[in-house]
Write a structure and sequence with these properties.
Layout lengths: L7 E7 L8 E3 L1 E3 L12 E5 L4 E2 L11 E4 L5 E5 L10 E4 L4 H12 L3 E5 L15 E3 H10 L5 H8 L3 E4 L18 E5 L2 E10 L17 H11 L15 E7 L8 E3 L4 E2 L1
Parallel strand pairs: 10-11
Antiparallel strand pairs: 1-2, 1-11, 3-15, 4-5, 4-9, 6-7, 7-8, 12-13, 12-16, 13-14
Length: 266
């Protein structure tokens, strides 16, 4: 393998508001919870304390979120909404009360917006960055001709993307069983691979219109099983609707930077 083929960090994609649009950045830091700083920093809740996210309501997909380059503000809008809900800009991450009013108008029920510096990860145990390879996203595009690589990124919402490797290379980053640990480093940051990420109802939906792609999960599962590479441990797949690798990050790594071009070393 030449230096040009070495695994390298090629994309960092933050999702500052859980279930909403991402922003690409050139660099990020490991936050106090082990994930990326500002990733999933806001989350929506109903008044009875339940999550309000795209898993529970497809209406989340219709909201557009545009962030200031320094992540100091976010503009929320709903293009084409019949109620003509106005676009509004909020300070991020501090303006949760005013943002909650906007979401309340949109969902037509009381909404609470909460901010957590440690983020609101999907996996509270393996709560580090999620890792996927560019080649894996390209493979999914081949399974579904109408899904581009960029759209696959929006559907699967991983935070770190690795180039210079074959499809599903990231399956090497978790062990043969739950007790085994795969340690690796990206740039200055030490990580532990945990498990292949179980997917939810979100990937089958168009990330802009919420339209369901009929048969997505069935086809994805069949193709994933058929193309599982030899380095993937079948023992870790109780089902094959899994894609990307979840990680854990020790507290010693908090505050360390990740930058585009950083190499990944096993």
């Amino acid at each position: 393998m030449t230096s040009r083929e070495l695994p390298a960090l090629s994309r960092i994609q933050l999702h500052p508001i859980k279930s909403l649009d991402p922003i690409e950045v050139q660099s990020s830091r490991i936050g106090p919870g082990g994930g990326l700083e500002y990733d999933r920093a806001w989350a929506l809740f109903t008044v009875d304390g339940k999550w309000l996210n795209a898993k529970r309501t497809a209406a989340m997909h219709l909201i557009r979120a545009i962030y200031a380059p320094d992540l100091g503000a976010v503009t929320l809008s709903v293009p084409g909404d019949r109620r003509n809900i106005p676009a509004q800009t909020f300070r991020f991450p501090g303006d949760v009360t005013q943002a909650a009013e906007w979401f309340t108008d949109y969902f037509e029920r009381p909404i609470i917006v909460r901010h957590a510096a440690e983020g609101f990860p999907d996996d509270p145990i393996a709560n580090g960055p999620t890792i996927i390879s560019t080649a894996s996203l390209e493979a999914v595009g081949n399974w579904f001709p109408n899904i581009t690589v960029d759209e696959a990124r929006l559907r699967f919402r991983a935070t770190l993307e690795i180039s210079g490797v074959p499809a599903f290379w990231e399956d090497q980053l978790f062990g043969e069983n739950e007790r085994s640990v795969v340690r690796f480093r990206i740039g200055e940051v030490n990580l532990e691979g945990s498990n292949p990420c179980a997917r939810c109802p979100v990937p089958p939906r168009d990330p802009h219109t919420a339209e369901d792609l009929v048969g997505f999960q069935k086809r994805f599962t069949a193709q994933r099983a058929a193309t599982l590479p030899p380095w993937s441990s079948r023992e870790r797949f109780d089902h094959f609707y899994r894609f990307s690798t979840n990680t854990r990050v020790a507290s010693t790594e908090h505050g360390k930077p990740l930058r585009l071009g950083d190499g990944l070393i096993l």
